[in-house]
Design brief:
Layout (H helix, E strand, L loop, with lengths): L2 E3 L2 E3 L4 H12 L4 H12 L8 E5 L6 H14 L3 E6 L7 H13 L10 H14 L2 E6 L7 H9 L7 E7 L11 H6 E5 L5 H10 L5 H11 L3 H14 L3 H8 L3 H8 L5 H10 L4 E2 L1 H8 L5 H8 L4 E4 L2 E4 L1 H14 L1 H24 L5 H7 L6 H7 L8 E4 L5 H13 L4 E6 L6 E6 L1 H5 L8 H6 L3 E6 L5 E10 L4 H6 L4 H5 L3 H5 L10 E9 L5 H15 L4 E4 L5 H9 L3 E2 L17 E4 L4 H11 L22 H10 L5 H8 L3 H15 L4 H12 L1
Parallel strand pairs: 3-6, 3-7, 4-5, 5-6, 16-17
Antiparallel strand pairs: 1-2, 8-10, 9-10, 11-14, 12-13, 14-15, 15-16, 17-19, 18-19
Helix pairs in contact: 2-3, 4-5, 8-9, 9-10, 10-11, 13-15, 13-16, 16-17, 17-18, 17-28, 18-26, 29-31, 30-31
Length: 685
């Protein structure tokens, strides 16, 4: 059988064909993008758009996706022509010639090399059959951009479908008129999902679930990073983590992103911008301790991996983590100084805002990833901005809430949440069976009664208006106490209070002392955006200057998360309402009055996170000059725990434990852990 390369037929297989076959086997995901292209390719006559604009930061696989589009077009017998804009800078005639050659399958003779005749040939082909013209690496188009928009595209036959792929979406002159806007459909290209990453890994022969999770956590589904790290993980197997550290496969991709930043000054600013999660010009000026010029900041925010957010700008998540790691490794002292400055800036702002009664939930959420707590950093790694919004539940939409609960109860899906701390590399894996995934909603079966007695019920809608989550909270006051006392979930806590303690909750609705949070449920906790919504909503309650009570299902995910955020289990509050045989506990966080400032400060210092107040601890550190956190480390040190075990118990990094031990040695003038342990034991006698 004859094989084709370009327009030449060869009677033998070629190396290039083998490479192409392997690339096809490696291609994973993009089902939505492929379906969209198929729709436009086959039903263009029913569509008003004629330009599909693929855009995404470097390494997202736009070129490979265009290649898949080409194959699908050729399978349908359609003609497809592609030009790489990097090869035709400022040469419109060369572009027309290249397109014409690909459409007609033959070279134009020298006397035919004219734009007009080439355009005529392309339109003649389009009159007979739909054709697709693709332009890749459009960010390199330069002055060709104006020619394409004003001279070439308007004169094309309406049977032509145009693909424009680049790092940036088409903006500016492409959007100045409603007519142009109607011509363009935007197709952002983002990372692969966890499921798609799993498929990619299995195609490489990786079957170990922990190795697949490692691939996901290191790459977050970024196609180029997958192509770099996937083969390494396939070779290393269970030692993929070590191989990742040794082979450093991602250094090359930093250079690719930095191609957009030609000057050292801009590259240095990118490094600084990778320290905070959200930044603006004034924030970066504070970190650098000098004014950032407006012109330089404008260059920064025009980069393809920088996007506008609600309160500033943010770097693409994986770009930020990769550049941040490079910054930390190459300039550790400067990085650490700016990291600490970031925490201090947010801390000062939060305390000042609280004095005037402002809501500071967003600022706290921004500060937490910089604290010395790997669980914070792991959970907040994916806490992005969200387009989802809340809507109060009333009689008019109560039916929708009940349908949502019914839908959730019918869902036959297990959940798997995989997250990791980008600083220490510590990973956390949680699995929910179908029953566990819907258990939180079992406390909300009486939604109509909850609404009737004064509950705070809100549904979460996505940008398209579909309900994707439900928030159920009960303000604690005189009118709601009967319900809270009777509920199998909240009842054990309230029934265990003394009359005097219960009286503190018998307030008017206007003077309520606290809130009982029954559930923040979403339809799929595997989705990072929905988990971000949970974090955002939870912090709204945590920063309310009231007592916050909740009793989640007895699962490690909930207990670790709430303890790491400062919630404490209440002794004697256990119940068996979720599965009838496993005890669940009520957790409390009290930020009333001045306690909110102390709570925020404790988050910064990590002094009280992870402790349980259910029993008084013996202070083995005695009167030694230790901080609260150092006393906690000392308590575990004398029990013989390793640094890693101490870090896990206190929800901090192993490096932080080492710093605390070193600080205690300096304060006591001792030389090693053995002497330190002996001194602590001697003091406690």
């Amino acid at each position: 059988m004859e094989r084709e390369i370009g327009q030449a037929s060869l009677p033998f297989p070629t190396i290039g064909q083998q490479i192409e076959e392997w690339n096809d086997l490696d291609f994973t995901g993009r089902s939505f993008e492929l379906h969209l292209f198929d729709e436009y390719m086959t039903h263009l006559h029913n569509r008003k758009e004629r330009i599909i604009n693929l855009h995404g930061t470097g390494g997202m696989g736009k070129t490979r996706l265009l290649e898949q589009f080409r194959k699908r077009a050729e399978q349908r017998g359609l003609r497809f022509a592609l030009v790489d804009m990097r090869d035709y800078m400022n040469d419109p005639e060369a572009i027309v010639i290249q397109l014409t050659q690909q459409i007609h399958g033959s070279f134009l003779s020298l006397d035919e090399r004219r734009q007009e005749h080439g355009l005529e040939l392309i339109n003649m082909a389009a009159a007979e059959q739909r054709i697709i013209l693709a332009f890749d690496h459009y960010e390199e188009s330069g002055s060709i951009d104006k020619w394409l928009r004003e001279s070439f595209i308007p004169r094309l036959h309406s049977q032509v479908l145009i693909l424009i792929a680049g790092r940036y979406p088409l903006e500016g002159s492409w959007r100045v008129s409603a007519a142009w806007q109607k011509l363009i459909v935007t197709l952002p290209i983002s990372e692969l999902s966890y499921e798609e990453t799993t498929t990619f890994a299995r195609n490489l022969g990786i079957t170990d679930e922990l190795v697949i999770d490692n691939v996901w956590l290191k790459t977050l589904g970024h196609p180029l990073m997958l192509s770099l790290f996937g083969p390494i993980a396939a070779r290393a197997g269970a030692a993929a983590e070590l191989a990742y550290e040794q082979e450093s496969p991602f250094d090359a991709i930093v250079d690719q992103w930095f191609r957009e930043a030609p000057s050292d000054e801009l590259r240095s600013l990118i490094m600084t911008a990778s320290v905070p999660r959200t930044f603006h010009q004034e924030f970066l000026s504070q970190l650098l301790e000098k004014e950032v010029p407006l012109s330089l900041f404008d260059q920064l925010i025009r980069l393809s991996f920088i996007r506008r957010s609600a309160k500033g700008w943010q770097m693409h998540e994986l770009v930020r983590e990769t550049i941040r790691r490079t910054y930390r490794d190459k300039m550790p002292e400067t990085f650490e100084k700016q990291r600490q400055l970031t925490v201090q800036i947010y801390h000062r702002h939060i305390l000042k805002a609280m004095e005037s009664g402002q809501n500071t939930a967003w600022e706290v959420a921004e500060m937490l990833p910089h604290t010395d707590n790997p669980i914070f950093r792991a959970h907040f790694r994916h806490s992005r901005g969200s387009a989802n919004f809340l809507e109060a539940v009333a009689e008019a939409n109560m039916g929708e809430v009940e349908q949502y609960i019914e839908m959730r109860n019918r869902q036959d899906k297990d959940w798997k949440i995989v997250c990791s701390d980008p600083e220490s590399g510590v990973s956390f894996r949680y699995k929910f069976t179908r029953e566990q995934s819907i258990s939180r909603l079992s406390s909300c079966v009486q939604v109509r009664e909850m609404l009737r007695v004064g509950g705070n019920l809100q549904l979460l809608r996505n940008a398209g208006g579909r309900m994707v989550g439900l928030l159920v909270a009960m303000p604690i006051h005189e009118q709601t106490l009967d319900f809270l006392l009777a509920s199998p979930v909240s009842g054990p806590y309230f029934n265990g209070l003394s009359p005097a303690q219960l009286k503190t909750y018998r307030t008017t609705a206007e003077q309520l002392a606290g809130t009982y949070l029954f559930a923040i449920d979403v339809e799929d906790m595997e989705q990072n955006e929905l988990r971000s919504d949970i974090i955002r909503l939870l912090f709204e309650f945590m920063m309310s200057r009231r007592i916050l009570l909740l009793s989640p299902p007895p699962l490690g995910f909930y207990s670790q998360t709430y303890r790491s955020l400062g919630f404490q289990p209440v002794a004697g509050s256990e119940h068996y309402a979720y599965d009838k045989h496993t005890p669940a506990y009520t957790y409390m966080l009290d930020t009333s009055g001045d306690k909110l400032s102390a709570f925020v400060t404790s988050l910064v210092q990590g002094s009280d996170i992870g402790n349980s107040p259910s029993s008084d601890k013996e202070d083995n550190a005695g009167t030694l000059p230790f901080t609260l956190r150092e006393k906690e480390v000392a308590e575990l040190l004398v029990r013989g725990h390793t640094n890693l075990e101490i870090a896990a118990a206190l929800y901090i990094s192993e490096a932080a434990v080492k710093k605390h031990v070193q600080s205690m040695l300096q304060k006591t003038g001792l030389k090693n852990r053995t002497q330190l342990t002996s001194a602590i034991l001697e003091q406690s006698r």
